[in-house]
Amino acid sequence: MAMYARKKQKVSAQSEAQVEEAKLGTVRDIETQTYSTHPTYPFPIANLPSLQLTASSTPRVIKKGDLDLLYYHPFFKDSTAKTLYTHLLESLPWYKVMYLARGMTINTPRYTTVFGLDETAIWDGDRVLSAISKQPVPSNLYQKPPRPIPGCLQELKECVEHATGERFNFVLVNFYADGTHSISPHSDDESFLGPNPCVASLSLGGSRDFIMKHKTKKDVSGEKFLLQNGDMVVMRGTTMANWLHSVPKRVGKTQSTSARVNVTFRRAINAKGSNNYSHFNVGSGPVHRFVQGSMVAMSE
Questions:
Q1: Which residue of 140, 161, 193, 238 has the lowest C-beta tally within 10 Å?
Q2: What is the pLDDT of residues 113-147, one digit of tens each?
Q3: CATH top-level class of 51-290
Q4: What is the DSSP letter of 223?
């Protein structure tokens, strides 16, 4: 695969070895490793090694009132999940997004990245066309150029779709570096996800609590899962409209603080979804790469 020219990059407060490794990561093993490339990627993204991507168990179905879940324990066997964890962590571009909310600057308490395109548009090579007219979309429709799902995540998406019978057009990935990285109670119920949206959440790496509680009914007992390497929860039906979910901070000697990668699959129905995901999961800050056990911040 031919290599393309890249701008010289500056790296803030990193060792020379880390900087060099981050640069070499785009071209290393080019003779044997295949890559997904696109003008919107900051560097080529390595495709998965040969893996048997099939669900390793049947899901536990959890239905009570307006809660509708599938719980795979596990979805991938441990060895496959470990390979996926390492590959995604080292191959994807990562971002630590800052944004304004209610007049305050919010620092996202985890690393994120996202790929996909809402269902109003389609890819034509590197171009984005209207799904209806098949003409190029207006230049101001997307705040940032959409990024197609790279091969490593596309394979995972197809496997999850086959197992669940759902269809997704976005893959959002979180990296929780330790127990201090978290996500507060929320629900993925935005209008751009359509009615009764489905979100599948695959956990790789360290174990973390996944907590669910009802939005309004205090007398309804919540759900708590210790998501382990390879586990997956699928939230569907009326779940998002009525339930909150979170990954709380976990610190102290008795709590698991191992690093974790969370891959979520979802479907956006319009451009508002594409803009929301790029704003909150890519933003305008520097891209990071995971090199020699830590994140290396890179800026053009």
A1: 140
A2: 999 999 999 999 999 999 999 999 999 999 999 99
A3: mainly beta
A4: E
